[in-house]
Automatic annotation (TrEMBL):
SUPFAM superfamilies: CRAL/TRIO domain (SSF52087). Pfam families: CRAL_TRIO. Residues 111-234 form the CRAL-TRIO domain. It comes from the Eukaryota. Coiled coil: none annotated. This is CRAL-TRIO domain-containing protein. InterPro entries: CRAL-TRIO_dom, CRAL-TRIO_dom_sf. It comes from Fragilariopsis cylindrus CCMP1102. The lineage of its organism: Eukaryota, Sar, Stramenopiles, Ochrophyta, Bacillariophyta.
Length: 285
């Protein structure tokens, strides 16, 4: 799918600051929500621009209209409840003040998922390498916890008008037989992604090669249309790199070695959680 085919033709009116203020006030009001105490202390962690983006999207039942206020509010509350249930704020703070080894022990594929660099507009880039994932020995619960911490810490590091990110997925090199021994891992990640990243994805470039297309099909089945609308499947890493240069995601000098370039992703950033988050925070500043 190309970008030219994914641009929306709808004239969705912009969400005003007043509407965003109303939403934030509603979410922060103890009187307006019986279950406020289940998630209220997480409201302060919300990005106003992300809330604006959620409110501005076309309504699924009528694409010519924006989402109703209560519908958008429900989506935000579902996210806040997830944050509270997973105690994600405290966990991120804990791991940021550690040496990162606790997170490293959660995954059998260290360095498979990480933040590195920003695009020409300052939006961060999330990278995934299937060849670094030990599918057959991975514990789904642990891998999902590790992924949620990495992704959410990067999202929480955003400030100002930055609320979207790019996702580069290298799913062209891996052992399919081992991957099929753990069939629940990919669906669990997709469900996590939809829970914590609604309306945050800028563009995703998914390299599937000759064997990874089955995972693109899994994503197409489980992910929402609004997410898949922004996933560009390519057959080679070189093709993805060219598209990313064209779209301003990376420059010619930033094409990584594993995509045919000369740029090296620092191992300290890709493997160490506190270093990774501090690095992406500085890059977005």
């Amino acid at each position: 799918m190309s970008k030219s085919n994914t641009s929306s033709t709808l004239n969705i009116s912009l969400v005003s600051n007043g509407e965003v203020n109303r939403m934030m006030t509603s979410l922060s009001s103890k009187e307006d929500a019986e279950d406020y105490y289940e998630w209220g202390d997480e409201v302060k962690n919300l990005s106003r621009e992300w809330v604006r983006a959620i409110m501005s999207q076309p309504y699924s039942r009528n694409k010519q209209k924006r989402r109703p206020f209560d519908y958008s509010r429900k989506k935000v509350i579902e996210y806040l409840l997830w944050r509270k249930r997973e105690d994600i704020t405290s966990k991120i703070e804990h791991h940021m003040n550690s040496d990162g080894s606790d997170i490293a022990r959660l995954t059998t594929g260290p360095g498979s998922l990480y933040w590195h660099g920003v695009d020409s507009e300052g939006s961060p880039i999330l990278w995934y390498h299937a060849d670094k994932t030990c599918f057959d020995s991975a514990v789904v619960k642990n891998e999902i916890e590790c992924s949620s911490l990495i992704i959410q810490a990067g999202l929480d590091a955003m400030s100002g008008k930055t609320y979207r990110f790019n996702f580069i997925i290298c799913f062209d090199v891996f052992n399919p037989l081992k991957a099929m021994k753990n069939p629940n891992l990919a669906p669990a990640f997709i469900k996590l992604f939809m829970k914590i990243c609604p309306d945050r994805l800028k563009w995703a470039y998914m390299v599937t090669g000759s064997i990874g297309h089955m995972f693109y099909k899994v994503a197409s089945t489980l992910a929402s249309a609004s997410i898949m609308h922004k996933v560009i499947e390519t057959r080679s890493r070189g093709e993805s790199a060219r598209m990313m240069i064209r779209d301003g995601v990376i420059s010619n000098d930033e094409v990584p070695i594993f995509m045919g370039g000369k740029y090296v992703h620092d191992k300290e950033i890709t493997l160490n959680f506190p270093t990774m988050i501090r690095s992406i925070t500085v890059a977005m500043a």
